[in-house]
Amino acid sequence: MGISRHATARWNGDLKSGRGALSTPQSGLMDGVRYGFNSRFGDETGTNPEELIAAAHAGCFTMALSAKLTDAGFPPESIDTRAEVDLSMDGGPQLSAIRLKTRAKVPGIDEVKFREVADDAKQNCPVSKALSAVPLSLDAELDA
């Protein structure tokens, strides 16, 4: 048996004027966090599915990179990752691209090995695998 996590969503009303709320009961981190049409397609305050996917992907990739660097004999001092998720409206709403941008401070590793390990983490973190239908790019930089 694996690990199971869950979140809940509630929506009231039609798509454009309705409001939703997201919660993560297990952790309590989100409790009725607002989301809606204008926080997804406009600039209204609130979250949206793409932002949450970006957060999940940044977190998963960063943990995978740390594990793979450590396994390769290069435990990192720090890793900072930004995930950008694009929502295209061409042909109906769809995720059209994900860009991971990471910077890491890793003593003793060279650029070639770092990029090799980072690419492996990009391909094999569970969230990358789940989102494999979406084009994914990685910009990995090594801090001196």
From TrEMBL:
InterPro entries: KH_dom-like_a/b, OsmC/Ohr_fam, OsmC/Ohrsf, OsmC_Ohr_Peroxiredoxin, Peroxiredoxin_OsmC. This is OsmC family protein. One of its GO terms (biological process) is response to oxidative stress. The lineage of its organism: Bacteria, Pseudomonadati, Pseudomonadota, Gammaproteobacteria, Lysobacterales. One of its GO terms (molecular function) is peroxidase activity. It comes from Luteimonas deserti. It comes from the Bacteria.
